[in-house]
Structures are given as structure tokens and as C-alpha cells.
């Protein structure tokens, strides 16, 4: 099965309804990630098929939960690296304005390049430490393998809009990290994810300020 067929199969398995052009954009992003990775070292995964399952499909697994929560007007992806899950969210949710923030300049530059080449007007690569960022607040702040829940929430809380939530992508249930959260941060849902093509535990930790 080629990459396009695998993507279409896994998109269907996740119950997502993506238009053909969105699936084409996801594959174009994968090609850019592969190309730029040779120079910029954006991800340790080199094989395109593994990039598809470990990065793209893994990130696609949060789209349905995000949409059920109510597609946000503004979303920030912290420690975005090569743009996961932020670029995937920008492609799948064109009504959501996505800022991918990373402290490494070349990673923010890559995200800007993806936005330009794929004509994603709702995607922005931002080179900054998140705690130093000056920006309008966000409805959802997400991260994937960025930091502990304590660090993630403490570094980004000033960027939450009224009624906003954190959506942290994690592997196994991080009981110790949840126990260490400050008293004013509430975990209101731990959502288990089933990721097609990936035999690994995944979950979303949904949090908000009390």
C-alpha cells in the first residue's frame, strides 16, 4: 500500500472526513518534512512510512477530539518542532488560526515555509520562547512531547483566553505528572486515543484553570 492509500485508510479508521485536497496537503507536508529533515534534523524518524504513522497519523488522532470540543478560533502549538500537531491541525481545521511556537529558529522557519508552499494562511511559525511571547490569547494550547504537564501549564498559562483549555498529547497515562500539577489546574478529562498503524499507548490530557 502506498503512502496515499495508507493515509486514506487511516483517515477513514479515525472517522475523519477530509477532502481530497486536505489529504494532498498532508502528503505534501510529509514530503517537505522529509526533504528539510536532511538539512535541519527536524525529527529522528527518517523513513517516510514511519513518518506517516509516527507523526502524521499520530497527530491526526487528536482532530476528532478537538472538533468535538469545538473547533477553536485560535490555537497555539508549543515546542512545535517540525510542526506536529500544529500543521496537521491547520490543514484539517482551516477555520482555526494556528501558531506553532518553537525556540529553535530553523524549526519556525520550516513551519513558515510549509505555510507558504501549501498556501495555509491560517498557519504561522513563531520563533520565540513561549514564556517571552507577546501575543493575543488562545482558545486551545497544545503540545506533543514538549515538557512535563507542570512546565507546559506554567509556561503558557498567561496565553490562555477566557474559558480556554490545554490539550496535552501524551503516551502512557502520566499519573505522576498529573499529581504534581498546581491546585488551580484542573484535569477535566483524560482521553485515550487509538492510533491506526501505531501499536503504542496515546492519550490527551485536557486541562483548564479552576
Please describe what this structure looks like.
With 210 residues, the chain is an alpha/beta fold. The chain has eight helices and seven strands, in the order H-H-H-H-E-H-E-H-E-E-H-E-H-E-E. The chain has a seven-stranded mixed sheet, sandwiched between helices. A hairpin with an 8-residue loop joins strand 6 (185-193) and strand 7 (202-209). Helix 1 (3-13) runs parallel beside helix 3 and helix 2 runs antiparallel to helix 6 (105-117). The longest helix has 21 residues, at 20-40. It is globular. The termini are far apart.
**What is the C-alpha radius of gyration, as a whole number of Å?**
16 Å
Distance between the termini: 47 Å
Q: Point out poorly predicted stretches.
A: none
Please state the overall shape, judged from the principal axes of the Cα atoms: globular
Percent of residues in beta strands?
A: 15-25%
Q: What class do helices, strands and sheet pairing give?
A: alpha/beta
Amino acid at each position: 500500500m502506498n503512502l496515499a492509500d495508507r493515509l486514506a485508510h487511516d483517515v477513514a479508521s479515525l472517522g475523519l472526513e477530509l477532502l481530497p485536497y486536505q489529504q494532498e496537503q498532508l502528503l505534501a507536508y510529509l514530503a517537505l518534512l522529509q526533504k528539510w529533515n536532511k538539512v535541519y534534523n527536524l525529527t529522528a524518524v527518517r523513513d517516510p512510512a514511519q513518518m506517516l504513522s509516527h507523526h502524521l497519523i499520530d497527530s491526526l488522532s487528536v482532530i476528532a477530539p478537538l472538533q468535538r470540543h469545538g473547533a477553536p478560533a485560535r490555537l497555539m502549538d508549543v515546542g512545535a518542532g517540525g510542526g506536529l500537531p500544529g500543521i496537521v491541525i491547520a490543514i484539517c481545521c482551516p477555520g482555526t488560526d494556528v501558531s506553532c511556537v518553537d525556540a529553535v529558529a530553523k524549526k519556525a522557519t520550516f513551519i513558515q515555509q510549509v505555510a507558504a508552499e501549501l498556501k495555509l494562511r491560517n498557519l504561522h511559525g513563531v520563533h520565540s520562547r513561549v514564556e517571552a511571547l507577546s501575543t493575543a490569547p488562545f482558545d486551545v494550547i497544545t503540545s506533543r512531547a514538549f515538557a512535563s504537564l507542570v512546565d507546559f501549564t506554567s509556561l503558557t498559562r498567561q496565553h490562555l483566553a477566557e474559558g480556554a483549555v490545554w490539550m496535552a498529547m501524551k503516551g502512557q497515562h502520566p499519573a505522576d505528572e498529573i499529581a504534581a500539577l498546581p491546585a488551580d489546574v484542573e484535569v477535566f478529562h483524560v482521553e485515550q486515543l487509538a492510533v491506526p498503524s501505531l501499536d503504542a499507548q496515546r492519550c490527551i490530557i485536557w486541562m483548564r484553570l479552576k
